[in-house]
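This part of the workshop introduces the protein records we will be handling. As an example, a complete record with its sequence and its structure tokens follows.
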Amino acid sequence: MVGMSDTSLFRSARTGADGDEMFAADGTLRPTYRALHDALAGLGLEEFRSRSESLARSYLDQGVTFDYAGEERPFPIDAIPRVIDADEWARVSSGVSQRVRALEAFLDDLYCDRSAIADGVIPEELVTSSTYVVDAVRGYRPANGVRIHVSGIDLVRDGDGGFRVLEDNVRTPSGVSYVLSNRRAMAQGFPELFADRPVRRVGEYPGRLLAALQAAAPDTAGEEATVVVLTPGRYNSAYFEHSLVARTMGVDLVEASDLVERGDRIYMRTTAGLRRVDVIYKRTDDDFLDPEVFRPDSMLGVPGLVRSVLAGNVVVANAIGNGIADDKLTYTYVPDLIRYYLSEEPILPNVDTWRLEEPDSLVEVLDRLEELVVKPVDGSGGKGIVIGPSATHEELDALRRRLRADPRGWIAQPVVQLSTIPTLVEEGPEPRHVDLRPFALNSGDDVWVLPGGLTRVALPRGEMIVNSSRGGGSKDTWVLAAGRPGAAASGLADQDEEGIEDPTDDTRDQFDDPREEHGEERGVEPDPVTSAIPIIEADDEEEDRHDAQ
């Protein structure tokens, strides 16, 4: 541990409590944070607060927003970054990659062979009782075998300081736009913080995402694959992310009305007629994707999309039917799935979890309900979670009734004391609880983990749920490069194969251009939103008229 003198900036952050990532319990500074702490402390509270407020205003001006209780708000960013050293990140990255590979094998097995059920690794009831299994895609294998093109694996630190997996997100994981925006904002607002700290870059994410999606395309006979991002529309709470991801990849952002099925193929309407689509990066739930298979009243889907997928003419990323891997009951079996499919021990352990469908576990949880956290297996965004120690007697009684009526629908976990990081509040920096969502991309040849990910922070004092839907914010997450102190300051950043952040380099665009490494000329970037243009080829218009009759 490293001693430190008292400063006005961090006085309220040194609480002497366990679990803080910047300060040890005795108030001394942890080595990983020493350089960052000293740089921030040198600014002083007023300067730091002033720049933090400018950061918040820039987010409002740029439209970096999210939906909170039906209101569009700027996404809160805290200007004290989270720092993870190279050795710890290597373990996190390996553990996330391992988990994605195991879940890929599980989904392929589930929809094709079901050997894990036959071998007793998972019970058949796990599958038959899940509402996420899509029978329509049983037997389907994507062109390059990838179903989880993008994943977000939520991690928390346990009482010993190590990372554990809290849940898996392999349907439509969100939040990467804030990772990219946070880094850009921090590099512009606090460039001196990067001066002698070799922070790994995050700007290559859009290029790697595009490459992974193009690698998933069906055979295009030598033509470049056409990739689009499918959004439910501008009123969706994550629309900012949909637009940013499409723009930084240089592809079209489309709504369902922009797409049409013809002969088991999907086309995009353009002013020049129909253009074939090869890969659809969907940002909507399966239930709304195709009214022929799912909800017939959906206006957010494309009729015939599933037929086109099964015909092998278009790929949907992430794959239809991935929801069973997000099921929190499936989560409890992932360590066993890693051993079964990969013949490896899990690198990142789960949080201890009770399966309430097991009678003995249900009895124990009902007896200890006021001590535990209880979660719906199909919940997201912190919805439905009951934290026993902070719940009222009435809430616990109602929960007991729900658990007895539907034990399959719930899991229980001990209260995990999330680690804290100093976070700017009204009085100055104070400890606030955080989690971490690393993002991984699977190209079929490799699982690449974005160095850092989204650190979410619970802004109200004592709050344990970090989701933005509960008023949470985020921090820039710094992963330090291995063995390269002073790399950015020495001018070696561009030569570092790990990719070191250099805010003084104004020759780079907002994010890395995915075409540069392929030597492609930069053309006119497409409009981020393709309007629903009614002009299509005459034969297609006649076919539309015939189908409607």
User: Anything to note?
Assistant: The CA atoms of residues 121 and 336 lie 7 Å apart. The chain has a mean pLDDT of 86. DSSP finds 15 helices and 22 strands in the chain. The radius of gyration is 24 Å.
